[in-house]
Design goal:
By secondary structure, this protein is of the alpha+beta class. 33% of the residues lie in helices and 24% in strands. The strands form 2 sheets. Strands 1, 4, 5, 6, 7, 8, 9 and 10 form an 8-stranded antiparallel sheet that branches. The chain has a 5-stranded antiparallel sheet with strand order 11-2-3-12-13, covered by helices on one side. Helix 5 packs antiparallel against helix 6.
């Protein structure tokens, strides 16, 4: 974002405007062309210019929320990337994941990180989780022009709400509609299959490890029926990424811990390919 600054790297006067607590508003004043939704694109469908990120799942558990994503990005029927990171730490108590046009989604997520950091530095306090959800919705609305040309980005925001003492999940539509989801949710090309798995396996009393195992089972089910979703790649040792947010803040589960859980899922599927069944009681 260095292009947003003035001559010699000095901040423009607009940066110090007391009313500019939003970095997005500041950027719109100083250099609007840096915003994803303000760029001019060639006429016609250009969506093939960037790969698509695929399946994300989220679920709450007592005391927190968990976010997990597969690693595959596709370009049409071609695997464009096998180890993409679609999960982004937004701040200490929130994270955002992307599905859709990968390049635009990554830029949007990073701009959201700067937006929250800018707000906290200007106001001396972090934005509330509701405020973060609303701010992300306005950023998606700003991308509407590109969405109409095929560059659709659908993020998923999760966070720990400190005043309420619980994890929360927010989903969005391509035009910026914001919806709070309860217990669990999924987005991306394999979301229908992942959500069916979550509905089957979710319990209100899941532990953090249990929630991670349910998320990996859901991603496995998505990969089983959706070719754009990547399952655990045991040969390359590429596994889903898992972020957890509690009152201790955001942390990413260590790779060896996720690998151990994923290996448990894969071993179980060798005995029962359709996965575990839901308890009857």
């Amino acid at each position: 974002m260095s292009e947003a600054f003035g001559i010699g790297g000095r901040l423009p006067a607009a940066f110090m405007n007391p009313g500019t607590s939003s970095f997005i508003d500041f950027l719109a004043q100083v250099n609007p062309d840096l915003l994803p939704g303000r760029r001019n694109l060639p006429q016609g469908d250009s969506s093939h210019l960037t790969p698509d990120a695929t399946t994300i799942v989220a679920l709450t558990f007592p005391g927190g929320v968990l976010l997990a994503g597969d690693r595959r990005a596709t370009s049409g029927n071609v695997i464009a990337n096998r180890d993409m990171d679609k999960l982004f730490r937004a701040d200490e108590f929130s994270a955002v994941a992307i599905a859709g046009s990968a390049g635009i989604g990554i830029e949007l997520a990073r701009l959201f990180q700067v937006e929250l950091e800018h707000y906290e530095k200007r106001e001396g306090r972090p934005l509330s989780l509701e405020g973060k959800a609303n701010r992300l919705a306005s950023m998606i609305r700003g991308n509407l022009g590109m969405a109409l040309q095929g560059f659709v980005v659908v993020p998923l925001l999760v966070g720990y709400d400190e005043p309420r003492g619980e994890g929360r999940i927010f989903s969005y539509d391509p035009v910026g509609g914001r919806y709070e989801e309860h217990r669990y949710h999924s987005i991306g090309s394999g979301s229908v299959y992942a959500r069916g798995s979550l509905k089957k396996l979710y319990r209100d009393d899941l532990s953090e490890e249990g929630a991670a195992l349910v998320a990996l089972q859901a991603l496995y089910d998505a990969a089983d029926d959706d070719s754009a979703t990547g399952g655990p790649d045991v040969h390359r040792r590429i596994y889903p990424l898992v972020d957890v947010i509690t009152d201790d803040g955001h942390r990413r589960l260590p790779a060896d811990e996720v690998a151990e859980l994923a290996d448990t899922v894969v071993t179980g599927r060798s005995q029962r390919p359709d996965g575990p069944t839901a308890p009857l009681s």
